[in-house]
Amino acid sequence: MESDLIANSPDVVFVSSSVGAGHHQAAAALMAALEQRDPSVRVEFVDALEFVPWWFRLIYAGGYKTLVTKFHRLYGLGYRFNNRPKTARRKLGERLRLRLEWRCLGRLRRYLLDRRPVLIMATHYLAMPMIGRLIRQGAEGLRMLTVVTDNEAHRFWYSENVEQWFVATEQVRSELCAWDVGPERITVSGIPVHAKWTNPTDEAKVRRDWSLPADAPVVLLSGGAYFTVGPIERIAREIIAATDAHVVVLAGSNKKLLASLSRLPETPKRLTPVPMTDRLNELVGVARIIVTKAGGLFTSECVAKGAAMVLTKPVPGQEAANAELLVREGAAVIAPTTDKVVAQVRRLLESPAEVEALQANARRLYKPAAETIVSAILRIIHNPGRADFHQRPAGRAGPDAPPTAHAPS
């Protein structure tokens, strides 16, 4: 029985949480890259929020959605308030949060202990401290890697016993080092995207397949995949009125928005509503300009495709950090209001040289993160011996004590 359990256990369990689409997409990109590199690797995907009590899921995911879509300032206040301390030592409020999460994640804890994967890859932070505590308590064979999916590491990402961190930028590396994570355990890899985002686009074919006009510039408009941020319908209609562009609107899973767009008189001659799709790379590939919120994963996909971006007003927090980086590097411009979005799109459509500069700067930012991370995963799977990197409590003893990083021996 014991040998059968081990034989059927996965090599890698990807642990994410359905809070926005990016964390799942990062996991999917890595799973696809693993399948391409080594089909013999057994993988599983789990959503941590499917293992928690209903009330916790309602507060955690539903609260995030409500704050991000309706109460930006309140979300920003909470983001800043919880983004501390800046050192390794955990304070009382943080310890209490982790105790609650430990209790609520009991089903996931038992699942992981039953499955006993060779490796756990976290693309969202919710389950990380729980897994780190299991490792410290001596759970046999558990190892954890983490991908930070934004250009800023919020304090919620902090966890002990992460064997290797994969981050987008040097700034994130510095933030982790302030928490006493050893720099040798941090790889500036970029954010992983599916390989299809780096494939060339057959523009004529894509336009035919999606019934897009052969000669009009395409503007792609996105407000989010699982929920919509911003007055998307109004932005679309005003871009159509102000330019000769054909607007493709990504409605994601928002059925109400999709139905509303389908009834507009501009559809389908000047506007194409698109529901959730796994062919988004095709549309980005033919778009002259992408109008989007500054989500870490989608902007990374646009970077991989070399797309020119106009960013809507970012939600305070990680989106603001993503937007700041892209603007600083010349890969995007910010338009905080609907009028400014329309003005920026019109200006860029009349300035091919500036669009080309944005595209070139986007391509310059691309890092082959999926390749880097998959190489690390395969090294661990095929070389199962591990160094004792476990972090020991610094100061306060106990399960929620702040860890101190130690390099592998």
Q: Mean pLDDT, nearest integer?
A: 87
Give the full name of the CATH homologous superfamily of the largest domain: Glycogen Phosphorylase B
Read across the widest sheet, the strand sequence of neighbours is 2-1-3-4-5-6
Total helices: the number is: 17
Question: Hey, roughly how much beta strand do the residues contain?
Answer: 5-15%
Q: Give the C-alpha Rg.
A: 22 Å
What would you call the structural class?
alpha/beta
Please give the number of β-strands: 14
Ranges where pLDDT stays below 50 over 5 or more residues in a row are: 1-5, 387-409
Q: Please summarize the sheet with the most strands.
A: 6 strands, parallel
Described by the principal axes of the CA atoms, the overall outline is globular
CATH names the topology of the largest domain as: Rossmann fold
Helix content: 40-55%
Highest CATH level, the class of the largest domain: Alpha Beta
N→C terminal distance: 35 Å
The tally of domains stands at 2
Specify the CATH architecture of the largest domain.
3-Layer(aba) Sandwich
Layout of strands and helices, then pairs:
Layout: H1 2-8, E1 12-16, H2 22-37, E2 43-47, H3 54-70, H4 72-82, H5 92-104, H6 106-115, E3 119-122, H7 128-136, E4 144-147, E5 164-167, H8 170-178, E6 186-188, H9 203-209, E7 218-222, H10 232-242, E8 246-252, H11 255-262, E9 271-275, H12 280-286, E10 289-292, H13 296-305, E11 309-312, H14 318-328, E12 332-335, H15 338-349, H16 352-365, H17 369-382, E13 392-393, E14 403-404
Parallel strand pairs: 1-2, 1-3, 3-4, 4-5, 5-6, 7-8, 7-10, 8-9, 10-11, 11-12
Antiparallel strand pairs: 13-14
Helix pairs in contact: 2-17, 3-4, 10-15, 13-16
